[in-house]
Amino acid sequence: MKSRMFSLLSLAACLLVALPASAETPHSTGLGLTLGNPTGATGRTWLSGENSLAYGAGWSITDSSKFQVYADYLWARPAAFEVNSEKFDFFFGGGLGLRSHSGKNDNELVLGPRIPVGVSYEFSHPDLELFAVFALNAGFIPSSDVYVDLNLG
User: In which band, very low, low, confident or very high, does the pLDDT at 122 lie, cut at 50, 70 and 90?
Assistant: First the structure.
């Protein structure tokens, strides 16, 4: 399991270096790593200056048998607030998550909606975006489960 995780993280790191993208540039895509729950690979494709698709896959930090994939539609508020003259973007959205080893018997594959909310900061040189996101997830199919994702990337 650890070698699979190392391989996934190495691939994601290579993609991050190979495919930089300017945030908020329509039709650009950025790929990278996310740390937290889940820890793994993440991506974001901008559809316009304020709308994007975010997606990712990774393992739980508390139980490596739990794997999760997700896709979200995000609305961004560029330069929503300032800290020491640095501008931060605020984003929120909705999407779907699929998580293994979850649900009523803790061995099901559970599908359901998620609501991510976060902040991001974009560096211009190098072309890099850092973010923090909180996502409330609710699994409904085939049984119910509620969990929270917290990530830095």
Answer: confident
* Segments of the chain assigned E as strands: 29-37, 39-46, 51-59, 67-83, 86-102, 108-123, 128-139, 145-152
Helices (H) and strands (E) in the chain, counts: 1, 8
| Residue 59 β-bridge partners | 39, 67
Q: Which residues contact 38 (CB under 8 A, 6 or more apart)?
A: 56, 57, 58, 59, 60, 61, 66, 67, 68, 149, 151
Residue identified by tokens 């975006």 is: 129
How far is 78 from 121, CA to CA, in rounded Å? 10
| pTM of the model as a whole | 0.78
Token code pair at residue 18: 């190979």
